Amino acid sequence: MVRARDLFATVMLSGIYGLLSASFFILMDAADVAFTEAAVGAGIFPLLMLTVLTSVGRYEAERRRVRYLPLFVMVVLAGALFAAVLQMPPFGAVDAPSHGHVAQRYIQDSPAEIGIPNMVTSVLASYRGFDTLGEVVVIFTAAVGVVVILLGGRPKTPQQSTQALMAEHKVLRVVGKMLIPLILLFGLYVQFHGEYGPGGGFQAGVIFAVGIILYAMLFGLSNAQRVVPLGVLRWLVALGVLIYGSVGLANLVVGGEYLNYSMLASDPVTGQHIGIILIELGVGITVASAMVLIFFAFTRATRSRDELEE
C-alpha cells in the first residue's frame, strides 16, 4: 500500500486490510471491535475514498525529491512505538496492568448495575458515557467542517441529475435493489440489538450510511437527495448529539448525575436500559447522517469542479 502509485489499488488493499484486522479481533474474542472495523474499514471507508479519487485522480504524482525532515520524524516515531511495544506485557498475561484496574469491576458489577448481556455496550454507553459523547461530538464536528469547506456551509440541491457512478451496470442495479433494503433492515437490527449482541449506534449508523451511499452510486446523487435531502441531513447530524446531551440533562432534572441513567425510572436497571437505548439512538442518527453528508459533499464538490472545467 505504501509503495503503490495506483490509488485505486491502495483503497482496495486498505479494505482488505480492514477485513483482516476484523478477523484478528474475532480471534481475540473482541466481537464488537471486529464489527466496527468491518463496517468502517471495509465498508464506509473504501466508499468515501473512492469518492475522493474522483476529485484528486487515480494515480499518485511522481516524487521529484526526498523530503528528509518528514522521513526523520517518521523514523523517530516508529522507533518510539517499537520501544513501547517491547515493554508491553505478554499477550494474555494475567498480571497485565489492564487487568488490574477497572476491568474487574466492570466484569463483576455490570450485570447487577446495568443488567444487559453485552458488557461492551455497558462500558461504552454507561460507565464511559462521557467518552462516547465526545466521540459523537467529534463526528458532528467533522461533518460540519467538510460541509463548510466543500459546500460553503449552505449546500444546495443540484438543478441537474448527477450521473451515478455505477449506473451503467444493470447487474449492479438489480442486485442493489435487492440488497439495499436488507442492508437498511440489518442496520436497524444492529441499532436496537446492541444491548444483547455485538453492535450499537456506531455500527448501525455506518451500515445505514452504506445503504444510502450505495443507493446514490447506483441510482444517482439527485435521486438519493430526494430520498434524504441535504437539509434534513444537517438537522439529523445535530439531532443525534442533542438527543445524547438531552439524556444527560434529563438525569440532572430528576436529581441524578449527568449521564447516570439510574434515575430515569423507579428501577435503576430499567433506567439504565432507557438511557442506553436513547443515547445509542442519538449515536446512530449522528453517525449515519454524518457519513452520508460527507459523501454528498465530496460528490457535489467533484461535480461542481467538473462543470467549471467544462
From TrEMBL:
One Pfam short name: MbhD
Na+/H+ antiporter MnhB subunit-related protein domain span: 171-292
Membrane-topology descriptor: Multi-pass membrane protein
Transmembrane segment boundaries: 7-28, 34-56, 68-88, 132-151, 171-190, 202-221, 233-254, 274-298
Keyword Cell membrane: yes
Places the protein is found: Cell membrane
Major location category of this protein: membrane
InterPro entries per UniProt: CPA3_antiporter_subunitB (IPR050622), MnhB (IPR007182), MrpA_C/MbhD (IPR025383), MrpA_C/MbhE (IPR046806)
A Gene Ontology term for the protein's cellular component: plasma membrane
Keyword terms of this UniProt record: Cell membrane, Membrane, Transmembrane, Transmembrane helix
Domain MrpA C-terminal/MbhE: 73-156
Domain MrpA C-terminal/MbhD, first and last residues per copy: 1-56
Superkingdom of origin: Bacteria
PANTHER family hit by this protein: NA(+)/H(+) ANTIPORTER SUBUNIT B, NA(+)_H(+) ANTIPORTER SUBUNIT B
Family: Belongs to the CPA3 antiporters (TC 2.A.63) subunit B family.
Protein name: Multicomponent Na+:H+ antiporter subunit B
